[in-house]
Specification:
With about 350 residues, the chain is an alpha/beta fold. About 60% of the residues lie in helices and about 10% in strands. The model has no long low-confidence stretch (mean pLDDT about 85).
């Protein structure tokens, strides 16, 4: 007598359901693992693409300025020095202008020590004080005599002043206007005939957010920056038919601390870095790199500002009464704090 074991339909159905459940669980696990891995891979991939893009753009920017005659005023300032480094490594023929010959010589030595002399040109040094408007014509001739032409003129020099409008003398107002407005436009007018005759060239104005929005206790400075921006905006349209490009690079405020957080307490330093970046604007290195990109792409206007500064410009434009009220409240608060001291 033999026994024959058979599976009941219920058992077969149960086994099939278990297999289906297991397959579903395995599928979910696989999808979960893939979703966990995809996000980091996407981040790494996008970061790599952005890095490659920026590197290519930087190389293209430097290739565009190769052998170009580039004049930088106030090359001794933070933005001036960083711009000199950026254009020098790009192979530009630099004409560095500044008030102090010994400091210009020190900058010359620094540039010569970091760049390959086989791939760069020796910078020319020219003494220039833009507040001395009378001498600018002679200095412009000296600049043109360096290489016989100017391809790119970077108007970078400016003088800052902090104080109430009524306490600032007219002599100081005039000095600020000479350095920040009359000086740059006088030099530009002296260089322009050379560019127009060759039907090529670019003029860059490094301005400030106070050319768009007036800040209390800086009336003379803001007035000079408004005037300069207005002049170069008009000049842009007038020179278009001659093939001369006019660009304005407008950062908010220039900060002097490093571009990266300090080592040590990473969380604290990162927070401090972000707060400072929002409050005080961009570093001189960032401005110099943007100037190089502006020249290579022939951008007409660049506004480098954090969200707070950009919001201030938009509010000033579309909601002026709100902007004036906020600024006035800030002035009253400042005066109250000074009275309490």
């Amino acid at each position: 007598m033999s026994l024959q074991l058979t599976k009941s339909p219920e058992c077969s159905q149960t086994g099939t359901q278990c297999n289906a459940i297991l397959e579903a669980l395995l599928y979910k696990v696989k999808m979960g693992i893939m979703s966990v891995l995809i996000l980091p891979l996407l981040v790494v991939g996008i970061s790599g693409i952005v890095y490659i893009y920026r590197t290519v753009i930087q190389l293209m920017s430097k290739s565009v300025v190769w052998s170009k005659v580039v004049v930088i005023t106030d090359a001794l300032s933070g933005v001036g020095k960083e711009s000199a480094r950026a254009f020098h490594t790009g192979g530009a023929r630099l004409v560095l202008c500044g008030k102090h010959l010994d400091q210009l010589q020190a900058l010359y030595d620094a540039l010569s020590s970091v760049a390959d002399p086989r791939k760069t040109f020796t910078p020319k040094l020219v003494l220039l004080d833009l507040s001395d408007v009378i001498c600018i014509q002679d200095v412009a001739k000296e600049i043109l005599d360096c290489y016989g032409c100017v391809d790119i003129l970077i108007n970078n020099a400016s003088i800052k002043l902090k104080g109430t409008a009524q306490s600032t003398s007219l002599d100081v107002d005039k000095k600020i206007m000479d350095a920040n407005y009359f000086g740059p436009i006088t030099l530009t007018k002296a260089i322009l005939p050379n560019m127009i005759s060759r039907r090529t060239g670019q003029v860059v104005l490094v301005n400030n957010i106070q050319g768009k929005v007036g800040v209390p206790f800086r009336a003379a400075y803001a007035a000079s920056k408004h005037a300069a921006l207005g002049f170069f905006d008009c000049l842009r349209a007038e020179l278009q038919e001659f093939g001369v490009c006019v660009s304005t690079v407008t950062p908010s405020f220039i900060r002097s601390f490093p571009t990266q957080p300090d080592s040590g307490n990473q969380e604290a330093s990162m927070w401090k870095y972000l707060v400072r970046k929002l409050a005080f604007g961009v570093h001189a290195v960032e401005v110099a790199e943007e100037i190089l990109r502006t020249v290579s792409r022939k951008k007409q206007e660049v506004f480098m500002a954090n969200p707070i500064a950009k919001a201030a410009v938009y509010i000033r434009t579309f909601f002026p009464e709100l902007f004036f009220a906020v600024v006035a409240a800030g002035v009253k608060e400042k005066q109250k704090l000074e009275d309490d001291k």
